[in-house]
Amino acid sequence: MLRVLVADDEPLITAGIRTVLESAGDIEVVATAADGSAAVLAALEHRPDVALLDISMPVLDGLGALDELRRRLPATRTVVLTSYGTEPNVLRALQHGAAGFVLKHCAPDELVRAVRAAHTGDAYLSPEVTRLVLGMVAPAAGRRREAAERLSALSPREKEIAALVAEGLSNADIGRRVHMSETTIKTYVSRVLAKLGCANRVEVALLVRDGG
C-alpha cells in the first residue's frame, strides 16, 4: 500500500481527499493534520511515502511544512494542493522541491494520479498549474541565453519530450502523442532531467519556456 499523509485545515476537504485516495485500492491515508506543524509531527511518526499539503494552513503553512519535511524526511515526496489563481507561492514550492502540484478543483482520478506519480518519482503537474507557473515568470535575456545553451545538450527526441513535459502532459499522455510506451517515455524524462540538471518536471517546463 502507498502510505499518504493529508494536511488541510478544512475538515470536509480532508475527508473528501481521504475518500478519493482510499477508493483507489492501493492507497492508505495513514494520518491527517489541520496545520503544517501537526503535519510535520504526523509525518515523523508515520513516515508516509507521500505528503499532500495544502498551501494555506495555520501555525505553519504548507510551504513551511514542505521545507521541514525536505530537511527531516527527504524520502517523503510532497505534493502541494493549491487553489487556482495568481499563486506566487507555487514558485517557492518548486524551488523547495515539491514533487507535484494539484488544483483543489481537480478531478478525483487526477488526485490519485498525482499521488502515485510522486511516489514513483514521476511528479505530476496539472496542465493548468504548469500554465500558471509559466505565466508567472517572464524570462530575462540572460536567462533565455542560458536556457538555450542547456537545451542544446538534448537530442532532437529529448527536446521533443521536454517540450511535451512543458505542456504539463503525463508520461502516459506523452507516450500516446509520440507512439512510445510509458516506460520508454519515463526513461527519456529521466535522461532529460539529468542532462538539464533539473530536479523536477516544472523546472524542465520553466527551462523550455525560457529557451523559447
TrEMBL record:
Domain Response regulatory stretches: 3-119
- The source organism is Actinophytocola gossypii
Query: Would the keyword Transcription turn up in this protein's UniProt record?
Result: yes
Q: Name positions with the PTM 4-aspartylphosphate.
A: 54
Instruction: Tell me what this protein is called.
Output: Response regulator transcription factor
* Family annotation (Pfam families): GerE (PF00196), Response_reg (PF00072)
Which keywords are on file for this protein? DNA-binding, Phosphoprotein, Transcription, Transcription regulation
Query: Is this entry keyworded Phosphoprotein?
Result: yes
The record, for Gene3D superfamilies, names: 3.40.50.2300
Question: What are the residue boundaries of the HTH luxR-type domain, all occurrences included?
Answer: 147-212
Top-rank lineage group of the source organism: Bacteria
